[in-house]
Amino acid sequence: MVKKLLIMEKALELFANQGFEATSVQQITDYCGISKGAFYLSFKSKEELIIELIDYFMKQFISDVDYVVKNSKKEELLSEFFYATYRNFHEHSNFAKVLIKEQAQSLSEAFLLRMRNYDHMLDKTILTMIEHLYSDAVEHTKYDLVYSIKGLVNNYSGLILFNNLPVDVDLLVRSLVEKANILAQHVTIPFVSTEISTLLLRPTDEKVSKEHLIELLDQKLNEFDESIEKESLSLLKQQLLEPSFSSAIVKGLLENIRNHPHCKWISYLLRNYFEL
């Protein structure tokens, strides 16, 4: 596990400087100080390494944003959404930079499919936020708002990441909240119809089965020594097998694990499974 994480870290530095296509497995192994054989013990190919990096970053991002949307007070929701977004971009700036660049250039079908899947998850989270914030007032323009808010996030992220601008995050968030609210209040001509939205917001994150969740929990339990995270994971598995805890207790258990980088995705999946 340690060697695998080292390869991911070092490869990311090369990808950030050179891009995916221009970086070879040989360059990665030289930079890591390991043999090609050691690389292929961890990853079958460079593409598999890239997919794992995408999964790691996007799972952290989606789970953080989803938690904010479902747990923030209405009056703070939009600003908390933008804070969570830029916090993730800042913490993973190297990979965020690569993703923004490569999405426009990559011809890899696996890369594009993976990103499209996570993109749809983000669309649905933003739609949930918009419906909660503005309700019926944006019934005919809510799908346009989804893509407008995503556009603000992507464009300002690129502006900051590729120009190394000093960032006053509070000012940035206030500015984006104002823009989003103006769009919500004054846009009257929708482009994305309900019919188009059913194609764009296609189902990608159907409810994960109980059996699959138990399998994932078993994997996580093997990764941890005795800790509050391990105890909470064990109790959540028990809840799946024989439900007996109240919603408040399940929420508390999820809260115990959600900030651990290796538990964010399982907490996201469980939160959706338990509909919390």
Folded structure, characterized:
The chain is mostly helical and 276 residues long. The chain has three domains: 2-43, Homeodomain-like (Arc Repressor Mutant, subunit A); 49-200, Orthogonal Bundle (Tetracycline Repressor, domain 2); 210-273, no CATH class. Helix content is 75%, strand content 0%. The protein contains 14 helices and no strands. The chain has helices at residues 2-18, 25-32, 36-42, 46-71, 77-91, 93-103, 109-134, 142-163, 169-186, 194-200, 210-223, 228-241, 247-257, 264-273. α4 runs antiparallel to α5 (77-91). The longest helix is centred in the first third of the chain and has 26 residues, at 46-71. It starts with a helix and ends with a helix. The model has no long low-confidence stretch (mean pLDDT 85). Residues 24-43 bind DNA. Keywords: DNA-binding, Repressor. One of its GO terms (molecular function) is DNA binding. Residues 1-61 form the HTH tetR-type domain.
Give the SSE order as H and E letters: HHHHHHHHHHHHHH
What structural class do the secondary elements suggest? Answer: mainly alpha
- What's the total number of strands? 0
Strand content: under 5%
Largest pleated sheet = none
The CATH fourth-level homologous superfamily of the largest domain:
Tetracycline Repressor, domain 2
Number of domains: 3
Shape: globular
- Which quaternary structure do these chains form? single chain
Give the helix tally.
14
Give the distance, in angstroms, between the N- and C-terminal Cα atoms. 32 Å
Unreliable runs: none
Radius of gyration: 20 Å
> What is the name of the CATH architecture of the largest domain?
Orthogonal Bundle
Q: State the helicity in percent bands.
A: over 70%
CATH topology of the largest domain: Tetracycline Repressor, domain 2
Mean pLDDT: 85
Question: CATH top level of the largest domain?
Answer: Mainly Alpha
